[in-house]
Design goal:
Blueprint: H1 6-10, H2 25-31, H3 39-45, E1 59-60, E2 67-68, E3 76-80, H4 81-87, E4 102-106, E5 114-118, E6 121-122, E7 134-138, E8 141-143, E9 156-163, E10 177-183, E11 191-199, E12 203-215, E13 219-230, E14 234-239, E15 247-248, E16 251-262, E17 268-279, E18 287-288, E19 306-308, E20 316-328, E21 333-351, E22 361-380, E23 384-404, H5 406-411, E24 418-439, E25 444-466, E26 495-497, E27 499-500, E28 507-509, E29 511-529, E30 532-543, E31 561-573, E32 578-595, E33 610-628, E34 633-652, E35 658-660, E36 673-685, E37 688-699, E38 702-703, E39 713-714, E40 717-727, E41 733-740, E42 748-757, E43 763-765, E44 772-777, E45 782-790
Parallel strand pairs: 7-10, 14-19
Antiparallel strand pairs: 1-2, 3-9, 4-5, 5-6, 7-8, 9-10, 11-12, 11-45, 12-13, 13-16, 14-15, 16-17, 17-20, 18-44, 20-21, 21-22, 22-23, 23-24, 24-25, 25-26, 25-29, 27-28, 29-30, 30-31, 31-32, 32-33, 33-34, 34-35, 34-36, 36-37, 37-40, 38-39, 40-41, 41-45, 42-43, 42-44
Length: about 800
């Protein structure tokens, strides 16, 4: 339960250190400096007084109000700014190390797309139209898509990991849990912070943030700019195109932000934020685990090296606005209005086969826009609390990709071969929610909550084959001409999913489907003593219904997925120096959405229908322990165990009869065991405060995809990290030295399998006619040094 660096760190300002990773994240980088504290937060902060060498009081907002971690009957890990600082945690994916049964990893061929699983529930495919199973929030603003969700952690107050369905207070698409990125408040004083980070692979990060009052105690403005750069961990050994940047796993991005806060009275507060990020890091090339049988592309010596026949260029552009209005009606009642508008655009090039030949190339374009509105009221009484609200979401998620099988097309006598897919999945939903926590006595409390959601989706898909190599307009390749003259109109292939609304029987309007869902929560907790809380709860969540974004026929939408979860747990401060929080959970995951209802005759079969054909279950235990051994020395331990499996996956046999093929499936991205041990030692010196930290993190075996006999499986491995941080007595100067993955472990975080074992030690080629088995890997051993000055 690594959420406190105890007395030593809590007496110091949290370092502001630079990150390593992704797109939109750095947006949040600046957000942190500009968020105003709520009245509740200010009140809670005043309670955080502790004796040296004792446990810290941890504040969380898991139930949308500020509460003590030990008094919240929810399985939640809170990782504070001091923890992040002391261990050199620089990107959201590293937070997985501190939360049991949690997976947060970069997804396959991109630096910015997040693969998130909690308790075996998440999102395997990041294509538009598919919905996440874990919700990502920045200051209560929902991030709808995994693209751009790998957040850089800068100026963060804390990161909260809520495990289990959060369907009542957080709504749809939180059936596995939620990740909350909580930024620091703006102080209102004139401040300026400048820092630089130098590290492995020519890492060079620069950041400047600041704030100043325009009207004292009334109006503030803040802003910032960051430029983050790093050479690649590897390179493209061969590129079929001239004049390409051959770095692989590199980083190049900049971000800017402006925030304005206004406090006309002590009870009224407004904040307006704008941010923009541009990430031009190269597309990530995968490692060939098998040599190509079609061209000269052997297995590279380094897992970070690759080959490509596509441009290495990649772009992620994100821009957004958010607005908060808060009114403290009374000391007990607070009303908030939160609005946001975000859009993103990302043309990307994914070489699935990773050879210099066009065996299986997928240039793609993703485009997303969404707006949200939320009106919330929080009441804190003597014997009960009540959180209620109304929420509205309107989002458009579109994209196109060209699955180019040029080598196969030439074998068939054509100039090439492309399956082109384009479409949109647009969603509009509203919800009303309420949750009450009622104290029946000084020791016994009940939680009753419910959320009602109505959602409408519209979708269309254009899908078809073209006997030529074609590319989206934004993925221009010299020497190739998009044959719009041959295929008139904006779409080269016909619309296959939509509504027939004209006399000619041609689809020319999107399909539409609506759903409604009631998601309850019931809980009870009992204080055995002032330091020990027992709790039990039942909660339900759902993941949105959707249309198949790869449809080849005019198929119907699939219904939402539903997770029912039961938990029992204990939170106990056994003494002033020892804390143990333990949770047992059991969940039932129903109506899972899978493309598996038609028999697969070969790995090249793309004509499959999306259906609610899966059901799985999981149970496990999570333990988080903190021991403050002395005033200087403390230990944190986080253990997770999960037993998860598919109980049913329905397909059709050759005769069209339903069969259960669940034995062929496995829960992906979910190791049976996870463990983290952190040791922290802080000391005052003549030159300032020094914190030394060492962490060992272990992940057991896991599959990258959901095939039981997958060739993409990762054996158990451990990561060893050490850090040393320093801050001057004045607090103006700070520094941090961080060594990550000291043993240089190589571990899979993503991949593609388009090949099948033949049973005799060989392989049957898959899509494109090659042995395409590709892996993407986590970061190698790195070291980085951050130096900063603030006033």
């Amino acid at each position: 339960m690594t959420h406190n660096i105890h007395n030593q760190a809590s007496s110091k300002q949290g370092f502001e250190f630079t990150k390593t990773a992704c797109a939109i994240a750095v947006i949040s980088t600046f957000a942190a400096s500009f968020v105003a504290p709520t009245a509740f937060a200010q009140e809670a902060q005043s309670e955080q007084v502790q004796a040296k060498g004792t446990l810290e009081r941890i504040e969380v907002t898991a139930r949308r109000t500020v509460e003590s971690l030990q008094e919240v009957p929810v399985a939640v890990t809170s990782v504070s700014a001091a923890d992040l600082q002391a261990r050199g945690v620089t990107v959201l994916t590293e937070v997985q190390q501190f939360s049991p049964n949690t997976t947060l990893q970069m997804s396959r061929g991109t630096n910015s797309t997040l693969t998130a699983f909690i308790r075996g529930v998440g999102q395997q495919d990041p294509l538009w139209g598919y919905e996440p199973g874990v919700g990502i929030y920045i200051d209560d603003v929902y991030m709808a898509r995994p693209q751009g969700a790998v957040l850089d952690l800068l100026n963060v107050q804390r990161v909260e990991v809520l495990r289990g369905p959060q369907g009542t207070l957080y709504g749809k698409n939180t059936i596995g849990g939620a990740i909350k990125y909580v930024t620091k408040e703006m102080s209102g004083d004139a401040e300026l912070n400048a820092q630089a980070t130098l590290g492995s692979y020519a890492q060079t990060d620069l950041m400047v943030t600041g704030q100043m009052p325009l009207i004292e105690d009334k109006l503030y403005i803040g802003g910032g700019y960051a430029n983050l750069n790093r050479d690649g961990f590897g390179e493209y050994l061969i590129s079929a195109l001239p004049n390409q940047d051959l770095e692989n796993y590199n980083k190049e991005l900049w971000a800017a932000r402006v925030a304005v806060e206004y406090r006309p009275t002590d009870k009224l507060f407004f904040r307006l934020d704008w941010d923009k990020t541009e990430d031009t890091s190269n597309s990530k090339g995968g490692f060939r685990l098998l040599p190509s049988i079609l061209t000269d592309a052997p297995v590279p010596d380094s897992v970070y090296d690759s080959y490509t026949s596509l441009p290495t260029e990649n772009l992620v552009e994100l821009e957004g606005f958010s607005f908060l209005a808060r009114y403290d009606v009374t000391e007990d009642l607070q009303v908030k209005y939160i609005a946001s508008s975000r859009e993103s655009y990302s043309p990307t090039n994914i070489d699935f086969d990773n050879t210099p030949v066009d065996v299986f190339d997928v240039p793609a374009i993703y485009s997303d826009e969404n707006t949200t509105h939320e009106l919330q009221a929080n009441y804190i009484g003597d014997t009960f609390t009540l959180t209620s609200g109304l929420y509205y979401y309107d989002g458009e998620s579109c994209g196109s990709f060209d699955a180019i099988l040029g080598a196969l097309g030439r074998v068939l006598g054509a100039s090439g071969l492309t399956r082109e897919v384009a479409g949109c999945n647009n969603s509009e939903s509203w919800a009303a929610y309420t949750q009450a926590n009622i104290d029946f006595s000084e020791r016994l409390s009940f939680t009753l909550g419910a959320r009602y959601t109505e959602e409408t989706k519209q979708a269309f898909v254009n899908n078809g084959l073209i006997f030529a190599n074609v590319y989206p307009e934004s993925n221009w390749i010299p020497g190739y001409v998009r044959p719009d003259a041959i295929f008139p109109g904006n779409n080269l292939v016909p619309q296959v999913l939509g509504q027939d609304t004209n006399a000619d029987g041609i689809l020319d309007a999107p399909s539409e489907e609506s759903w409604s869902r009631f998601t309850p929560r019931v809980g009870v907790d009992y204080k055995v003593s002032n330091d020990t809380l027992l709790f039990a709860s039942y909660s339900q969540g759902f993941k949105s219904g959707t249309f198949n974004p790869r449809a080849t026929i005019n198929e119907p939408a699939v219904d939402p997925e539903v997770v029912n979860s039961f938990e029992i747990g204990v939170k106990s401060d056994i003494s002033d120096t020892l804390r143990a929080n333990i949770t047992y959970f059991n969940l039932d995951h129903q109506d899972r959405q899978y493309i598996s209802v038609l028999p697969v005759s070969s790995p090249t079969d793309l004509n499959q229908i999306l259906g609610n054909v899966g059901q799985s279950r999981a149970s496990g235990i999570e333990a988080e322990v903190t021991w403050v051994a002395t005033e200087a020395l403390s230990f944190d331990l986080a253990l997770g165990f999960i037993d998860a499996e598919f109980e049913e996956v329905i397909s059709l046999d050759a005769n069209g009869q339903e069969v259960d093929i669940s034995d062929a499936f496995a829960i992906s991205n979910t190791p049976e065991y996870t463990a983290n041990l952190s040791v922290n030692y802080g000391l005052e010196t003549s030159i300032g405060f020094v914190m030394l930290s060492a962490t060992y993190y272990y992940r057991d075996d896991y599959n990258i995809d959901e095939t039981a006999d997958s060739l993409l499986s990762q054996e158990g491995y451990g990561l060893f990290n050490v850090s040393a941080t320093w801050e001057s007595d004045s607090g103006n100067y700070y520094a941090g030295l961080h060594l990550k993955n000291l043993t240089d472990e190589e571990y899979l975080v993503g991949g593609y399998q388009f090949v099948t074992p033949d049973g005799n030690g060989g392989f049957i080629p898959g899509t494109g006619g090659d042995n395409t088995l590709i892996g993407y890997y986590g970061d190698p051993r790195t070291v980085h040094l951050t130096l900063g000055y603030r006033f």
